[in-house]
């Protein structure tokens, strides 16, 4: 089974971006980790990143068409993109899993991060475990697929 792992804006800067907040693992390392964790669980992880909202929306549409489950870190779009939220609803209403992940725990941070417009249409959310949030999401997906 192939799973699409999608990362939103600024996550390509992981490793050098506010390392006290986001950790020192680089984006390239995160991609490699996700592919390894996926293959350990029998999942083929396809990992992508974009800073572009419209590209993210298009990838959700592609996931529906290709019947791919999604692990999504919407990054800052989490907090205000209704367009991405509606695209995520397309995924879950097509009976595909969409797991929202965050490196940090947004609820422990600034007020504007306390709202996720994506959570209500996600299968579930994993936040606050650093890069392990992605591993836990892959494990949750593998368990769900049985
Ligand atoms: C994030 C949390 C968001 O609030 C932030 O805008 C990000 C990353 C996380 O993974 O912790 O870019 O989604």
Q: How would you characterize this protein structure?
A:
- The structure is a single chain.
- The chain is an alpha/beta fold and 146 residues long.
- 40% of the residues lie in helices and 18% in strands.
- The chain has one domain: Dehydroquinase, class II (Rossmann fold, 3-Layer(aba) Sandwich), CATH 3.40.50.9100.
- The protein contains 5 helices and 5 strands, in the order E-H-H-E-H-E-H-E-E-H.
- It has a 5-stranded parallel sheet, with helices on both faces.
- Helix 2 packs parallel to helix 5 and helix 3 runs parallel beside helix 4.
List the main descriptive attributes of the protein structure presented here.
Rossmann fold; binds 1,3,4-trihydroxy-5-OXO-cyclohexanecarboxylic acid; alpha/beta; five-stranded parallel sheet; EC 4.2.1.10; 146 residues; 3-dehydroquinate dehydratase; DHquinase_II_CS
Radius of gyration: 14 Å
Tell me the fraction of residues in β-strands, as a range: 15-25%
- Named at the architecture level, the CATH assignment is 3-Layer(aba) Sandwich
What compounds sit in this structure?
1,3,4-trihydroxy-5-OXO-cyclohexanecarboxylic acid
Mean pLDDT equals 97
Number of domains: 1
Written as H for each helix and E for each strand, in order along the chain, the element string is EHHEHEHEEH
The third-level CATH topology is Rossmann fold
Derived structural class: alpha/beta
Binding site for substrate: 73, 79, 86, 103-104, 113
Pathway: Metabolic intermediate biosynthesis; chorismate biosynthesis; chorismate from D-erythrose 4-phosphate and phosphoenolpyruvate: step 3/7
Family: Belongs to the type-II 3-dehydroquinase family.
Active site: 22 (proton acceptor), 102 (proton donor)
